[in-house]
Amino acid sequence: MSSSCATVPHRVRTQWRSDNNFGPAIKVLPYRNRCGLSRRDFATRGIVAAGASVMSSTLVSQPAQVFGISIGLERLPYKKDGYKFWTWRGHKIHYVEEGEGFPIVLIHGFGASAFHWRYNIPELAKKYKVYAVDLLGFGWSEKALVDYDALVWRDQVADFLKEIVKEPTILVGNSLGGFTALVAAEAMPQQVVGIALLNSAGQFGSPDDTTTETEESGVQNFILKPLKEVFQRVVLGFLFWQAKQPARVESVLKSVYKDTTNVDDYLIQSITKPADDPNAGEVYYRLMSRFMSNQRKYTLDSILSKLSCPLLLVWGDLDPWVGPAKAIRIKEFYPNTSIINLQAGHCPHDEVPEAVNKALVDWLATLPSTYTASQTV
């Protein structure tokens, strides 16, 4: 792989299907469905948590190029020291900010960062004010040694909206970021006026998930639990070491991108470099052993039942982890939903950015408050 992706072709496919007449109908290929991301998916295939930097940088978008010739799709430049920083509860949080107009907040998936929206930020910023924030423990944000839970990221995003954005907002999230967008919207119903989910994480509840709490015995507390933790640390320590290797990151990305053209050195570096942070291994352990085991505490049906804003699902139908059946189930449960189906994998915003950008802009134009704001830019 070349040391620079500036001259690597960034081929973008624009064939897609919509139930809102956004584009021509195409045949949807057979897909493999999995509604939830399991702990094994994250641990053995997942992309590792990544590390903090300190310096702010001027944001200048760069055109994507093929053999040195611009193809019109701008790309966020990769800056190893990050872009902008905000202090939240004593922790350094990284984010990107570009454009003017009605605000849109982009939230990345597990192990990724704001840089994963590199093809979306410049385009969306032509009409809107775009923020892309790194969740605590990921990207350039601090590798804080806290007990990771969905509510930690919910509170982070909610405070980001209060302190940085300060006005009604659209949330857009991929994978884990999609689930975070949902729980943040539940917490901030007056400020979040719309949500777009791209192959979102999260599971629907099941009667089988209900459990009764029992008092643990002394043997469990003092013998079995410590042994279990030691075993987990050994296994997850090895998985962390394996997961942060560039070749492994590249392999994982290529397994969830149908078109792997955009799996380049910059994307890989944005994931592997932060993993060098001294706390990254411990963050990975806490994410795997604690957060993943608590996923069932927060179900999609319990969250969606409390929302009232419009919802857009932009779904890569060829995702080997989260198939389109989940999008269909979300719409059945939450009727105020539009679906855009794309021939892409788990990260359609980076794999087919032109199609995702169009889907977002067209949908945003149907929302009265954002449409008015976009016309003033």
Can you walk through the features of this model?
This protein has helices spanning 39-45, 121-124, 150-165, 176-187, 218-243, 246-256, 265-272, 280-291, 300-304, 324-333, 348-351, 353-365, 368-375; strands at 16-18, 62-66, 69-75, 84-88, 91-98, 103-107, 129-133, 169-174, 192-198, 311-316, 337-342. The chain has 377 residues and is α/β, with parallel strands linked by helices. It has a single domain (16-203, 223-364), classed as 3-Layer(aba) Sandwich (Rossmann fold), CATH 3.40.50.1820. The strands form 2 sheets. The protein has a 9-stranded mixed beta sheet, with helices on both faces. Strands 2-3 form a two-stranded antiparallel ribbon. Strand 4 and strand 5 form a beta hairpin. Helix 5 (218-243) crosses helix 8 (280-291). The radius of gyration is 20 Å and the shape is globular.
CATH class: Alpha Beta
Helix content: 25-40%
Strand arrangement across the biggest beta sheet: 1-11-10-9-8-6-7-5-4
> Could you name the CATH homologous superfamily?
Alpha/Beta hydrolase fold, catalytic domain
CA gyration radius, whole angstroms? 20 Å
Distance between the termini: 40 Å
Q: According to CATH, what is the topology?
A: Rossmann fold
CATH architecture: 3-Layer(aba) Sandwich
Q: Quote the beta fraction.
A: 15-25%
